[in-house]
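Q: Make up one entry.
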Amino acid sequence: MRRPLSSAARQRGFTLVEVAIVAAIVLIAAVVGVPAINGYVIENKVPSVAQDLQRFVVRMKASTQGLGEAPYTGSTTALLGNALRGSGVITVSGTGAAAVVRHGLGASDGRITLAADTITVAGDSFAIGLDKVNEAACPGLAAAMQRVSERIVVNGDTVKEPAAGGATGAYDAVAADSACVAGDANAFTFTAR
């Protein structure tokens, strides 16, 4: 016959050593897992950000058809901010010239800018720039934007250039991958006309 346990035996808890070991295991798992989870979250935002930017590019092209040789003269980030204000992924703060557009693909202060650019003549194209993009979004972002961009520059390296005679050039995926750097240090310029 078994003797009933005393109240002291029934209330035995964990020792300080056992709690410390479990805490160390949880801490190690967090240190290893959090960066991987962050990269996964950023990588999953790329299609949504690219879709919003592609939609903006198409709208810009459609709204400037027939406006002459330099239809994008005067294009600014304020225009981009107004167009992307309702985005679920891209955030816009401020209005007009004070508009700040953030992409969410890396550092919290990573921005998207818009300016008139030059492919053949001043104002015949516009450039969308992104800074402080995480490596998890690179080169996926460049690949997603290649269909609507004439020129793509990743960290100063041109990975797509218009072909002679205004024809669409070829996108170089290997060059885009090689241009990407670790961390939230990637910068992109997508030029369209």
In short: DSSP finds five helices and seven strands in the chain. The two ends are 90 Å apart (CA to CA).
